[in-house]
Amino acid sequence: MWKILKSYFWWTYKRGSLHYDVMVTLILLFLFVSPQFIHYRDKPVESGMPGNSAVMVQSDGSDGYVYVVPTAIMHYSGDDNTQRQTELLRVIQPIAGDVTVEKVEAVRDGRGNLTAYRAWVKH
To answer: 116: part of which helix (H) or strand (E)?
Structure first.
């Protein structure tokens, strides 16, 4: 019995043997079953859908793009159009480079709350 445990520990069995298959099966069971019982404190990856912090980029059908910027990541969302465009550029330029904002439109949810801004930009 000690010899078998020692050879499992040092992985001395040849590929395709019964003991090798048992070791691989135990490892795979640990990988797939352990997250059900052990809390690893990891967090799910955000999907590609726009959420509280995701900027969504779409083509406008010609030579420009439409950026949907959530208000949650903006520092300013007031009524001053110049400051709003400056803030939109602060968020968009790290993604797109040197661009100009052509048009801005507010995006509201079903209750009328402002959730994001849709900005048409040109290079």
So the answer is: strand 114-122
The CA angle 78-123-62, to the nearest 5 degrees, is 100
For the stretch 41-63, pLDDT in tens is: 776 655 444 445 688 898 888 87
- At 65 the three-state DSSP class reads strand
Helix (H, G, I), strand (E, B) or coil at 67: strand
Q: Residue ranges of the domains in the chain? A: 2-37, 56-122
Question: What are the φ/ψ torsions at residue 59 (nearest 5 degrees)?
Answer: -75, 145
CB 20 within 8 A of CB 13: yes
74-79 contacts at long range (C-beta below 8 A, 24 or more positions apart): 74/117, 77/114, 77/117
23 burial (CB, 10 Å; 0-12 / 13-18 / 19+) is middle
